[in-house]
């Protein structure tokens, strides 16, 4: 009896490499870690910069909790009356002047009546916090700006060498970026780490989504797979901000990034086992040039929906925590927890509408989603405390989940219908649209808040989403490329180059009678 040349683990890996489900697992984990790193910095950066730059410059002797103003009011008795403020009470310590105690006590109770609240979030230095909106916005936008520039090159690279090697390159860069975040102590180093993350994210997202589209050729299955993969994205967003705020407050700045670095190593091991990143596997068919795809109006409409719907939450990331610090007196842990309703509802939305969108119509699902995004953003400034943010943020996350889970499969469907079925380039365009939202949103959002205020920023982006929503009607029934050419040139559509999948079963029916004709031929 011949012995099996492969031991059981290697046999399992050989069988698993051909399984679309394991590919889906790899993409799910990659998107999860990418978006955990994307959002874990949201509650950390504003308070970290305030602690290191503002408090470091203004409290050289006294602790951060001690306000410099009250001692100045008691200048004549400075050596004998020195106040330390905690969260609830004001205590006057040590007095050498019996006549100065009553007056000093009476006067010290008035100015400190407001400082105890700032320690819990309403921090002093409003001018610094206003300027910090712009700096934090630019730091958050740097990742998307770099990703925006790298995406087209990654799309072309995947068409030439396949998806496996770019996917592993993305993991390597993401790991380096995570370690750099852990040990960065200045704004400049944080900016570089964020930009480096954009490069790694570009490789991971473009290669991952293209790989899914290539292994799930059926449109219905592809929609379900995209919904599950976007669930990984949603889970990363869900865990990232609360995880970062809690770890930063109770453990330290480096702790959340070191945990993510360890998880990234596990993801790299998973990719080595399943994807074989040393193997070059170029696309079997020549890809449609990106310039041609960018001239397709249907692809542009879908990309615009992705851009504007995600621009809303991108504007919230740098501005909402600072607005909460100024108006709600929120402690540090609440700055990340404010995004929890949006993350949970996004996770539900992507998984739910990955299936439902195919039944109700993806164009309708995305149109409703953009309308709900607009209404939710208009309701955000009405919140008076963190509990008032639950409804608007929950609706925002659910609606963005509707748009993303509808538009990602539409991108692959439009390429199948109107171009050649290679997916690296079209998902590079989808990722570019996504990144434009996360680049324009934070960079302009901080400047708009500084100029006209946070409520007007929400009005602008909310109305923009409401105005764009009707354009999703155009995606209701996009024509096949051959049909459009036949209408324009009045020539036989069969003489044009028809699209074909990488593993074609039959040609796409160009007319209503084509199925009958094919059966007669057989």
Structural description of this entry:
Helices cover 71% and strands 2% of the residues. It is globular and about 65 Å long. It has 522 residues and is an all-alpha fold. The chain has 21 helices and 2 strands. 49% of the residues are buried. The longest helix is centred in the N-terminal third of the chain and has 36 residues, at 126-161. Strands 1-2 form a two-stranded antiparallel ribbon. Helix 7 (126-161) runs parallel beside helix 9, helix 10 packs antiparallel against helix 17 (390-418) and helix 13 (297-327) runs parallel beside helix 16 (362-379). Strand 1 (82-85) and strand 2 form a beta hairpin. The chain starts with 7 loop residues before the first helix and ends with a helix. The model is unreliable at 60-121, 486-512 and 514-519 (pLDDT under 50). The protein has one domain (16-53, 126-277, 288-482): MFS general substrate transporter like domains (Growth Hormone, Chain: A), CATH 1.20.1250.20.
